[in-house]
Specification:
- By secondary structure, the chain is of the alpha+beta class.
- It is built from 13 helices and 18 strands.
- Strands 1, 2, 5, 9, 10, 11, 12, 13 and 16 form a 9-stranded mixed beta sheet that branches. It has a 3-stranded mixed beta sheet with strand order 8-14-15. The chain has a two-stranded antiparallel ribbon with strand order 3-4.
- It binds one RNA strand through helix 3 and helix 4.
Length: 454
RNA sequence: GGAGGGAUGGCCGAGUGGACGAAGGCAACGGUCUUGAAAACCGUAGUGGGCUUAUGCUCACCGGGGGUUCGAAUCCCUCUCCCUCCGCCA
C-alpha cells in the first residue's frame, strides 16, 4: 500500500509512476474520497466533542441527583438534612428536567453522528479497497520499459555453456527414462500440471532443499523458519497477494485458510502488527515450503515437463530492514542466490526488470535465469524484490529508530533461493551423459550419496 | 467435538455504566544525591487519525466487529485467540 499522503500531495506524479508500470489505478477517486473523508471527519469529530462535553455534564448532574434523592428520602422520613423535603423535591425536579433536556439534545447529536458515520464508513471502505489495488511505485533506478522484452539481460555467468557430442535431451524425456519423474501417475493422482518424483528424482529435490537451507543459514546468516503452509486470507492481503491475485490462490472450502503460493506470504506476516527495535534489524529468514498456484493466467503455457506446476517447492529468503539499508540488502540477496548457482555449477544470468515487468509489489526486482541445455531455455530460478514499505504498510510492521523515537515502517525484501523444479531441470539437462545418466554436482554428493544418477 | 474460564498500556495487574487513556507495581527515560555505581527520592512518558502549526486543539483506541445508552474497559450479540477439564487422535 502507498502512503495516502503521497497520493494526496502528488497525485499527478503518482499517476505518472504507475503509467511506467503499464498499469493504472483509481487515483482520482482516491483523492476525492480522501478529501471527503477528512471533511466528514471534521464534522463528526466536532459533534462527538459536543456530545462528550454534554454527557460529562449529565454525568455530574446524575451524581448530584442521586445524592439529593437520598437526602429527600431521609427528609421525608423526618431526618434533618439541612433542607426541607419540599425544597429538595423542587430541586430534584428541576435538575431532572435539565438532565432530560440535555439527553434529548444529545440524542439528536447522536443521530447525526450515526448518519455521518454511515457515510464515512462507505467512503472509507471504497478508499481502502482502492488503496489495496494501487501498485507499488518503482524506484528511480529501475529502467523504464513497457514489458519483459525490454528487461536488461546480464552476461551469462558461472559455468560455461555445456557441450555435448550427442543431442542433449529435455528433462521430460530424460526423467521418465531414468525413472525419476513420472508424469502419467502425477496426472492420474491430481490432473494436469502435477507430476511424481521417484527414487533419485525425489532424493535430488530433497538434497537441494537441504543444501539451500544449510548454505543460507551457515554462509549467509539467515535464520531457518518452518511456517504454516496454509494461512489466513488476511496474511495474503498483508503480502499484497489479495485482492489482486485472488484467482491464483487455492483456499479451504470451510475455513478461512489459503495455501501459500510462496513462503513470502507467511514470512511477511511473521512480524505483522509488531514494532521491532532497530537493533534487531536486519532480520533475515530462510524457509522451505511447497508453493501452490492455480496458474489460471498461464493456461496452456509451459505445459511440458516440471517447469510450471500447481505445486512446487522453493526455498525463500526474506529480510526486514531499515529504509536506509534495503537497497544494499537487495544486492546482497541477489549475491546470496548467485552463490548457490555458482556452487551448483549452473550457467546463469542476472536480469534487471524494467518498470513494465515489475509486478504489483516490487519497487525494484532482479531475476536469475539458469540455462537448461535440453530444452534450450533460460529458466527463471529466482526472483528477488525490494518491496520497500509496500507490504509493511499492509501488514503493519514498524520499527523504532535508535535515534529519534518516531515509529517507521520497515522495508521488506524477498527472493527465491532457489526455486526447485527449475534448478532440477538445469541440473538434469546440463549434466546428462550420452548413456542417459546424470552427473551429480559435487556439493550435492554428500546429500545424495552417489556421484551419478543412472 | 462437549463443558467452563479468560484477553486491559513495554510487562504484571486493578477497575459497582458517569471524574477512566485508564489505579498500583515492574521495566524505560530525565533529574537530585554520589569520586563512580547501586539504593533512595522527584519528574517524564502510548498508538493512530483530523485541524492548526509558535505553543496547540480535537477524535478514536482496554483482543476484532456490531448493538444498547445522553454516556461503555464495564451491559448484550458475534468472531478470533489463549487456558482448564472430558472425548478423539498422527
Amino acid at each position: 500500500m502507498l502512503d495516502i499522503n503521497l497520493i494526496r500531495e502528488k497525485p499527478e506524479w503518482v499517476k505518472a509512476q504507475i503509467a511506467k508500470l503499464n498499469d493504472t489505478a483509481p487515483i482520482d477517486e482516491i483523492v476525492a474520497d480522501d478529501a471527503r473523508r477528512r471533511e466528514i471527519l471534521g464534522e463528526v469529530e466536532e459533534l462527538r466533542r459536543q456530545r462528550n462535553e454534554t454527557s460529562k455534564q449529565i454525568g455530574q448532574w446524575m451524581g448530584r441527583l442521586k445524592k439529593m434523592e437520598a437526602d429527600l428520602k431521609r427528609a421525608e422520613a423526618g431526618q434533618d438534612v439541612g433542607q426541607s423535603a419540599d425544597q429538595l423535591r423542587a430541586q430534584v425536579q428541576s435538575l431532572q428536567f435539565n438532565a432530560d433536556e440535555a439527553k434529548d439534545e444529545t440524542r439528536e447529536i447522536g443521530e447525526r453522528i450515526t448518519e455521518l458515520d454511515e457515510e464515512l464508513r462507505q467512503v472509507e471502505e471504497r478508499l481502502q479497497h482502492n488503496m489495496l489495488w494501487v501498485p507499488n511505485i518503482p524506484d528511480e533506478s529501475v529502467p523504464v520499459g513497457p514489458d519483459d522484452s525490454h528487461n536488461i539481460l546480464g552476461d551469462p555467468q558461472g559455468a560455461p555453456e555445456p557441450q555435448f557430442d550427442f543431442e542433449p535431451k529435455p528433462h521430460w524425456d530424460l526423467g521418465p527414462e531414468l525413472g525419476i519423474i513420472d508424469f502419467e501417475r502425477g496426472v492420474k493422482l491430481s490432473g494436469s500440471r502435477f507430476y511424481l518424483l521417484k527414487g533419485w528424482g525425489s532424493r535430488l529435490q530433497r538434497a537441494l532443499i537441504q543444501f539451500f537451507l544449510d548454505y543460507h543459514t551457515e554462509k549467509h546468516g539467515y535464520t531457518e523458519v518452518y511456517p504454516p503452509f496454509m494461512v489466513r486470507s488476511e496474511m495474503f492481503v498483508g503480502a499484497a497477494q489479495l485482492p489482486k491475485f485472488k484467482d491464483n490462490i487455492y483456499r479451504d472450502a470451510e475455513e478461512d485458510f489459503m495455501w501459500l503460493g510462496t513462503a513470502e506470504i507467511a514470512l511477511t506476516n511473521v512480524h505483522r502488527d509488531e514494532v521491532l527495535d532497530e537493533a534487531d534489524l536486519p532480520i533475515k529468514y530462510v524457509a522451505y515450503t511447497p508453493c501452490f498456484r492455480r496458474e489460471k493466467m498461464s493456461a496452456g503455457r509451459d505445459v511440458r515437463g516440471i517447469k510450471r506446476g500447481h505445486q512446487f517447492d522453493k526455498v525463500e529468503m526474506y529480510r526486514f530492514t531499515t529504509p536506509e539499508t534495503s537497497y544494499q540488502a537487495l544486492e546482497e540477496m541477489v549475491q546470496d542466490a548467485m552463490d548457490i548457482c555458482e556452487a551448483l555449477g549452473l550457467r546463469y544470468r542476472k536480469v534487471e526488470m524494467v518498470t513494465g515487468d515489475l509486478g504489483f509489489a516490487a519497487a525494484k526486482k532482479y531475476d536469475l535465469e539458469a540455462w537448461a541445455a535440453g530444452c534450450g531455455e533460460w529458466l527463471e530460478i529466482s526472483s528477488i524484490s525490494n518491496c520497500e514499505t509496500f507490504q509493511a504498510r499492509r501488514a503493519n510492521i514498524k520499527y523504532r529508530p535508535a535515534e529519534n523515537g518516531r515509529l517507521q515502517y520497515v522495508h521488506t525484501l524477498n527472493g527465491s533461493g532457489l526455486a526447485l523444479p527449475r534448478v532440477m531441470i538445469a541440473i538434469i539437462e546440463n549434466n546428462q551423459q550420452a548413456d542417459g545418466s546424470i552427473v551429480v554436482p559435487k556439493v550435492l554428493r554428500p546429500y545424495m550419496g552417489v556421484d551419478v544418477i543412472r
